[in-house]
Amino acid sequence: MSILSVKNLGINFGGLRALDKFHLEINKGELIGLIGPNGAGKTTVFNLLTGVYQASEGEIILDNQKINGLSSDKIARIGISRTFQNIRLFQNLSVLDNVKIGMHSKYEYSFIEGILKLKKYKLEEKIKEEEALKLLKIFNLDVFASYKASSLSYGKQRELEIVRALAGKPKLLLLDEPAAGMNPNETIELMNTIKKIQESFEVAILLIEHDMKLVLGICEKITVLNYGRVLSCGKKDDVINDKEVIKAYLGE
Amino acid sequence: MKLRFNNNFKYIIFTTLIFLFIQLLSSFNFLNRYYQGILTIMCINIILVVSLNIIAGFLGQLTLGHAGFMAIGAYFSAYITKLLSNTYFSFPIALFLGSLMAGIFGIAVALITLRLKGDYLAIITLAFAEVVRNILLNLDVVGGASGYVGIVKHTNFAYAYLIMFVVIILTISVIKSKSGRAILAIKEDEIAASASGVDVGNYKILAFVFSAFFAGLAGGLYAHYMGILEPKAFRLDKSVEILVMCVLGGMGNLKGSIIAAIILTLLPELLQGISSYRTLLYAVVLIVMMLAKNHLTLKGGVK
Ligand SMILES: Nc1ncnc2c1ncn2[C@@H]1O[C@H](COP(=O)(O)OP(=O)(O)OP(=O)(O)O)[C@@H](O)[C@H]1O
Ligand SMILES: [Mg+2]
User: Fold this and answer.
1) How many CA atoms lie within 13 Å of B278's alpha carbon, on the beta-carbon side?
2) Could you report the per-residue pLDDT of B104-130, keeping only the tens digit for each?
3) Is residue A172 scored above 50 in pLDDT?
4) Among partner residues A72, A88, A105, which is closest to B189 by beta-carbon distance?
């Protein structure tokens, strides 16, 4: 059952062909790795999928719905959430508020019910707060709920970004180098948690990661990018034995 | 982010007590008309600073056109009270319609400036206020350059205080709801906000409408307090004056900006005796207050 289907995606930045004939299939609940050297176009894929950039050509279909040209917020509401390579938290807001904003589109009370603080507002704020705290527990961040996001350590900020993205109940979660800046132990722990999230939330995950070993550890399928093109894709065993991949990525 | 008035109930009791106290003082003639006038202006200034805070503090956009929204509310509400002459409800109706008109202009300004930030937004909003003022200068129906006279003085302290109270409560409620969080998120990071499902454009418009509506309300109160309106009251100085209160109190800090509005309303009155040095002293006090505030912030005293 395909949840995301990308065909022939391409974008130019001035003279630079940052992405060319990119394609990707993700099934429901799958965990897929997206790897490639610096500047290969990985983050650009995320920016195209989430409407930050508009593709020059190609097609993105999420759950049988074409999402090219939709705004970022609409795409988020339809079901793609993401984290950012350079952390983009709401730094001056509390950890809890960061997660609540991640849930933004799930609140049902109307604007008027909100400012008049009617029953529905109170009830929903309470339920959502409990939900948010529960999500924060995944990374033991609930104890920091009232802290400013900026006061968290770098690693914890990355984890908070994942929680915020999960809060929108996405069908597809995009993680852009979530382990960047973490030490080896933290990284292994994070990868295990990501695996756990995939299973317990039944969410499909597309994971950008530099470290090939990490990706091989948890992903069933891998897509390799090089100079904006798909070098190889498919089951991980096939990909790591692909001659092109060995030549370009592993440099042998 | 810690919210300023955590306990609404405490806040209601507190403001009611202040109100009763002031009413008591006036009924025993401890407060003459002059002092009541200052208190009324103080309430109007508080409404202005709170409303500006929605755009400048919470949404994080620099605007220099607040006096424009105030002017629209002032002139339009005055026009309506004259139109309805002596009907019992003419004042509240006029206040509402004046604010509504300001709110509509808020939508227009928001739509024009949707993609602008920082200096560009400041310049456009400044231009907006100047255009409004120049139109008023040439609009003979409302007196043009010679002023709009004969507005019935409906505004009294009780009216201004009640409306100020409602404006503050509503603003806090907005900020504490999902809409307020969305607005704060936009200030922090627009890209992350929209990636979280926040419709950035809509919430920018919402912030402008609310802010402009309340500024219009303050304008309506002002018009019916003064009894006469002149376009020159809504020059850039006025926008800057409100912005200074906002900055002094700490952007996005309601309690702080209310205190700043109180101090900066009283200051010129206190300096009246030494009228020739008044503006100079006003500036000096401002600088000292800014320095003191910075000092506290650096020490971690004000968070
Ligand atoms: N907004 C932009 N304007 C111009 N060029 C861009 C823009 N965004 C990306 N690029 C270029 O497109 C190419 C791909 O960038 P991208 O960020 O997608 O790489 P990446 O695979 O994520 O690399 P890294 O591993 O360093 O994060 C790079 O050459 C980059 O300089
Ligand atoms: Mg990248």
Assistant:
1) 12
2) 999 999 999 888 777 888 899 999 999
3) yes
4) A88
Tokens representing B242 are 């409100």
Query: Is residue B135 predicted with pLDDT exceeding 80?
Result: yes
HSE, side-chain direction, 13 A CA sphere, residue A238: 10
Confidence of residue B296 (pLDDT cuts 50, 70, 90): low
Nearest chain A residue to B174 by CA: give it.
A115
**pTM reported for the whole predicted model:** 0.90
**Residue found under tokens 């002092």:** B35
Distance CA A208, CA B127 (A): 47
Tell me how far apart the terminal alpha carbons of chain A are, to the nearest angstrom. 37
Distance CA B294, CA B287 (A): 11
From residue B156, how far is each of A140, B42, B290 by CA, in Å? 55, 12, 32
pLDDT of residue A180: 86
Where residue B47 falls (left for φ over 0; alpha for ψ -120 to 50; beta otherwise) is alpha
Where along chain B do its domains lie? 5-235
Nearest one of A79, A72, A108 to B177, comparing CA atoms: A108
Q: Say what the ipTM of the complex is.
A: 0.92
> What is the four-CA torsion angle of B176, B179, B182, B187, rounded to 10 degrees?
-80
Average pLDDT of the segment spanning A102-110: 92
Residue of B nearest to A98 (CA): B185
Within a 13 Å sphere around the CA of B137, how many CA atoms are in the beta-carbon half?
12
What is the pLDDT, as a whole number, of residue B33? Answer: 76
A78 touches chain B (CB under 8 A): no
B55 secondary structure, DSSP code: I
How big is chain B, counted in residues? Answer: 303
Radius of gyration of chain B (CA): 19
CA gap A115, B169 in Å, rounded: 9
- By CB atoms closer than 10 A (0-12, 13-18, 19+), residue A74 is middle
Nearest by CB to residue B197, choosing from A114, A116, A168, is A168
Ligand 1, atom 31, lies closest to the CA of: A39
